[in-house]
């Protein structure tokens, strides 16, 4: 086999050459994704074996595709994660808190299961089993978060040509377990208020007493439905107590990126949830009290702040609330419980649409599913209507 021989194959005209040690080299010119013709070659023990190896190499397009400098099917999952995170930063559409959450979920939940695989080894079966095991070991919510970041990363691999399809799309549908949104009762709200007001204020308690901000923050959450981060982001210029009722503009949130200082983000959780809220009198009173403290400050000054005039962090407020309520024997109450309570009160009075508007949701579907406590009571008018089915009396009277 001293001279090159040719044959027409699926990918064009193959050329066969001796490769030494009795092996055969097959090669072909292949038009790549960028339109360039590239010479691809493979060896085998025979012409057929060399041709099969060459066809496999061409179909994979791993070593010569234009995207292979970034990712290929033989890239490790860890390499994909690095490229994916870099892509998130380049696009820059995620809030810093969301970006941090995505990376944390990827590294803590997904990476331990897939870091030793190449991309071509990650198939529907592996992903399906991973999600099912995570759901059983952790929770539906945790598994859903893992599925989200895994799908985003593998979707990038598809766009880069390293995978033909996203295996996450083929897994079994996740079934959310039945849950019930629980709002606080008025008695529970009053118990929380009492616990916060009395915390560390008993005679003889060592150390300085609390500064009173926690109870004020709770009142603002109850009167605005705002998230804890949105309440902490309210500035002097966002409130107006000269009108009746007083108003608060919800137009930012407090974020604490990993390894960076806490700061005020100039929009709420979503860009579309900026809103002006008319507040009840008990919230207006809290706002007036805060304005007295910062009346001489810049309009951008926050209503709630640390002793060093820096933003309060949401984690610290949550931690303080847990400590206060734990001392009072009250368990399971988070800042979000106040938001669910507001939604439920509004729904009972005026329906879910008004609740969704106040909470800053794009539709009442989210509000009803996640924030409004189900109402088991049926409209009592049914009793009057069904009187028509009452049995006839013996005396002929109804």
TrEMBL record:
Residue ranges annotated for the Tyr recombinase domain, each copy included: 179-384
In this chain the Core-binding (CB) domain maps to 75-158
Protein's name in the database: Site-specific integrase
Keywords from the named record: DNA integration, DNA recombination, DNA-binding
Q: Does the keyword DNA-binding apply?
A: yes
Q: Which domain of life is it from?
A: Bacteria
Extract the GO molecular function terms from the UniProt entry. Answer: DNA binding
Query: One GO BP annotation here?
Result: DNA integration
Q: What is the lineage of its organism?
A: Bacteria, Bacillati, Actinomycetota, Actinomycetes, Propionibacteriales
- Record the organism: Nocardioides euryhalodurans
The UniProt family comment states: Belongs to the 'phage' integrase family.
SUPFAM superfamilies under this entry?
Answer: DNA breaking-rejoining enzymes
